[in-house]
């Protein structure tokens, strides 16, 4: 088995062998159900569209991703098991990518749990499958980027709580920028909007898989993973 897959498998066994991941996923699905079915009441709105639910799912991912990724490296460092991993024939890149892949798989499971809502809307009325598929592609890209930010935060500290808060703060930055767009000068709106998560998720939710949006999520993921790798390598050199 490739080293990255080995690390990812080990991380998934740890995540789902403890109640934290199950509770986080249950809270994620429950919160989305509460917001979409109670607050927005999408099934009674008369319009079969996933635009509203996608917005809520993306917002809830901002909480779920840090919760899933916060322990990935921070707990390994706190317990001393990161030193054990360092003695194995694993590079820092393989450790980080494996941890990130496990977080992405877990977040993908959370997204899969929201599919019944889309199925219910299909039963409610005619729904264009293009925007639904595009929306989920965008959410998976967002989940990948947020997971990378979470792993980077986890690599920077031994405290899971601090890692959660750091990842949440960094991830909320582009969202705050998006909310502040009405304050931006009109000639700069289109440029600043590209730097927000909302722009890319909503763009993909229109049913158009834009490579620029996927490149944005990929870029955020690569930066987050690179920061995590540098953190691990720095700790190794400091020993």
Characterise this structure.
It is a single chain. The protein is mainly α. It is built from twelve helices and no strands. The model has no long low-confidence stretch (mean pLDDT 82). It has one domain. It is globular.
β-strand percent reads under 5%
The figure for the number of domains is: 1
Oligomeric state of the chains in view? single chain
CA(first)-CA(last) distance = 30 Å
Name the poorly predicted regions.
none
Query: Structural class, please?
Result: mainly alpha
Largest sheet: none
Radius of gyration: 19 Å
Give the SSE string: HHHHHHHHHHHH
| Count of strand segments | 0
How are the elements arranged and paired?
Elements (H helix, E strand, L loop, with lengths): L2 H14 L2 H21 L11 H19 L4 H6 L1 H7 L4 H21 L2 H10 L4 H27 L4 H20 L6 H8 L3 H8 L6 H28 L1
Helix pairs in contact: 1-6, 2-3, 2-6, 3-6, 3-8, 3-9, 6-8, 6-12, 8-9, 8-11, 8-12, 11-12
Keywords:
239 residues, mainly alpha, globular
Quick rundown:
With 239 residues, the protein is mostly helical.
């Amino acid at each position: 088995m490739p080293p990255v897959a080995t690390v990812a498998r080990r991380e998934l066994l740890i995540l789902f062998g403890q109640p934290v991941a199950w509770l986080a996923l249950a809270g994620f699905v429950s919160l989305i159900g509460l917001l979409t079915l109670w607050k927005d009441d999408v099934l009674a709105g008369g319009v079969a569209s996933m635009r509203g639910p996608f917005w809520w799912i993306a917002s809830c991912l901002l909480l779920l991703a840090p919760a899933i990724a916060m322990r990935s490296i921070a707990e390994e460092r706190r317990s001393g098991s990161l030193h054990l991993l360092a003695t194995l024939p694993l590079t820092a890149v393989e450790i980080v990518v494996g941890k990130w892949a496990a977080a992405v798989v877990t977040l993908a499971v959370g997204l899969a749990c929201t599919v019944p809502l889309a199925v219910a809307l299909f039963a409610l009325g005619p729904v264009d499958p293009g925007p639904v598929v595009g929306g989920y592609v965008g959410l998976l890209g967002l989940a990948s980027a947020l997971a990378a930010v979470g792993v980077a935060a986890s690599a920077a500290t031994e405290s899971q709580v601090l890692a959660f808060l750091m990842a949440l703060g960094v991830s909320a930055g582009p969202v705050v920028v998006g909310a502040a767009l009405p304050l931006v000068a009109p000639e700069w709106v289109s440029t600043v909007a590209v730097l927000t998560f909302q722009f890319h998720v909503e763009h993909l939710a229109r049913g158009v898989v834009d490579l620029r949006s996927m490149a944005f999520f990929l870029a955020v993921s690569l930066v987050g993973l690179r920061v995590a790798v540098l953190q691990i390598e720095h700790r190794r050199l400091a020993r």
